[in-house]
Amino acid sequence: MKYVECIRCGEEYPAKRKELGYKTCLDCGAQDAHRVSRARQKETLHQLAPSYQGPISDLFDDRGED
Fold it and tell me: Is residue 49's pLDDT more than 60?
């Protein structure tokens, strides 16, 4: 099996992965994917936050109050 070097950490990974278009090993690729996912989630939350127009008290559960 042929191996190539990851552009981020220098570790070797299978050449078939590079043939698929990936330039990083699985570990570095997973880190990149998590970073992108967190950025997208943060962006979505920032877009949603100002959209609620009702009173703040409606956001909390009234159960347990007697």
Answer: no
Distance of alpha carbon 22 from alpha carbon 18, whole angstroms: 5
Contacting residues for 2 by C-beta, under 8 A, at least 6 apart = 14, 15
CA 25 to chain centre: 17
Can you read off the two tokens belonging to residue 50?
A: 């100002």
Q: What is the Cα–Cα distance from 54 to 52, expressed in whole angstroms?
A: 6
The answer to whether the pTM exceeds 0.85 is no
A 10 A CB-CB count for 29 gives 16
User: Would you list the domain boundaries of the chain?
Assistant: 3-47
Query: Is the pLDDT higher at 56 or at 21?
Result: 21
User: Which parts of the chain fold into alpha helices (H)?
Assistant: 15-19, 26-48
